[in-house]
From TrEMBL:
Domain (GH18) ranges: 46-341
Alphabetized SUPFAM superfamilies for the sequence: (Trans)glycosidases
Organism this protein belongs to: Pedobacter punctiformis
UniProt record similarity statement: Belongs to the glycosyl hydrolase 18 family.
Keywords: Glycosidase, Hydrolase
Name recorded for this polypeptide: chitinase
N-terminal signal peptide: none
Catalytic activity: Random endo-hydrolysis of N-acetyl-beta-D-glucosaminide (1->4)-beta-linkages in chitin and chitodextrins
GO molecular function, one term: hydrolase activity
Classification via InterPro entries: Chitinase_II/V-like_cat, GH, Glyco_hydro18_cat, Glyco_hydro_18_chit_AS, Glycosyl_Hydrlase_18
Coiled coil: none
Length: 343
């Protein structure tokens, strides 16, 4: 009797275990792997890029203007020396700006920036590099971003960071591309020879999807127009250096255009400030309170947009809020020159 009871109990137990096992093996919904099984294909279409700093009020930009961009980066996410990330500034603004960009078909991203010394320390060790890459990827995935922009100003041959920059960008690129997210980089205009220009090595070209070339803040560079901080000649020189002298692929070169002006003392005013005083924005200079500022008006912006289309693959504006919301917008002028629809 005990044997029969024992056998019955064992049979019952096996039946229950079998049922539980079947329930685990046959889930209600199949799981999908996070990492894409298809190869990463870069987007080589012409780009119109801008940045939205955390200290700007999103309500100061007309929502209709988002359609004038292809890519928008929120600025900035700051790293720590150990590879961890600082708390994002103005997260509510970040969410609103990214939501508005996505609703208007704009690709979204986070721009990573910070003190040069922090980047130098973080990139110098494999442990901190790996943690940084892991954290940036997690941020991009959590917030459903299309990509990441690296704004390290600047890796240099004088402090040994140039080689570590290459390692960092390759590791970040590999991780982002596995999830079909792009990697861009803000870089020096390359008009000044030296350790900073040489700090961006050619080995990084294959890892990065596109480079936002910051062709501005060059007061005194153009001897024919010494107070203009972003002359057309500076733009042609910069593009020639990166594309022809250094061999950057054309599809990766994005020409930076300032949406602000500077005076002889290197102080700045937003482009919208010149529109507000009813300045002739077809020109490249205007006076505010008796001080003359030099900027890129609609005429020069159109010339630069054509230059970028002819020799490169995009334009970039620092920054989105600086531009005017009306008919004198330089981002609008660029779109019109490129024949791009934004309605």
């Amino acid at each position: 009797m005990k044997k029969i009871y024992l056998l019955f109990s064992m049979s019952t137990l096996l039946f229950i275990v079998s049922c539980k096992k079947d329930a685990v093996l046959e889930p209600d919904k199949p799981t999908t792997p996070e990492v894409s099984t298809t190869p990463y294909v870069p987007d080589n279409s012409f780009k119109i890029v801008s940045y939205f700093p955390s200290y700007r009020d999103p309500e100061g930009v007309n929502i209709s203007k988002y359609k004038m961009l292809t890519h928008l980066f929120y600025a900035f996410l700051n790293p720590n020396p150990d590879g961890s990330l600082a708390t994002l500034e103005q997260p509510a603004r970040f969410n609103l700006v990214m939501q508005r960009a996505k609703a208007n078909g704009v690709k979204t991203g986070i721009s990573v920036s910070g003190t040069k010394s922090i980047f130098v320390t973080m990139a110098s060790a494999a442990t901190s590099r790996n943690l940084f890459v892991k954290n940036v990827l997690a941020f991009a995935k959590t917030n459903n971003l299309d990509g990441v922009d690296m704004d390290w100003e600047y890796p240099s041959t004088s402090d040994g960071s140039a080689d570590n920059y290459v390692l960092l960008m390759k590791e970040l690129s590999d991780s982002l591309h596995k999830y079909h997210k792009f990697l861009s980089a803000a870089i020096t205009p390359g008009v000044y020879a030296g350790s900073i220009r040489d700090g961006l090595k050619n080995e990084v070209f294959p890892a990065v999807d596109f480079f936002n070339i910051m062709v501005y803040d060059g007061v005194g560079w153009d001897k024919n127009d010494p107070v203009q901080h972003a002359s057309y000649d500076m733009a042609t020189y910069s593009m020639n250096y990166w594309l022809n002298t250094r061999g950057m692929p054309k599809e990766k070169a994005v020409l930076g255009i300032p949406a602000y002006g500077k005076n002889a003392a290197n102080s700045s005013k937003a482009y919208r400030d010149f529109v507000a005083i009813n300045a002739n924005t077809a020109l490249d200079s205007a006076s505010i309170a008796g001080v003359k500022y030099y900027f890129n008006g609609t005429t020069t912006t159109k010339k630069k947009a054509k230059l970028a289309k002819d020799v490169g693959n995009g334009i970039m504006f620092w920054e989105f809020y600086h531009d005017d919301n009306g008919t004198k917008s330089i981002i609008k002028a660029a779109n019109d020159t490129l024949g791009r629809s934004y309605n």
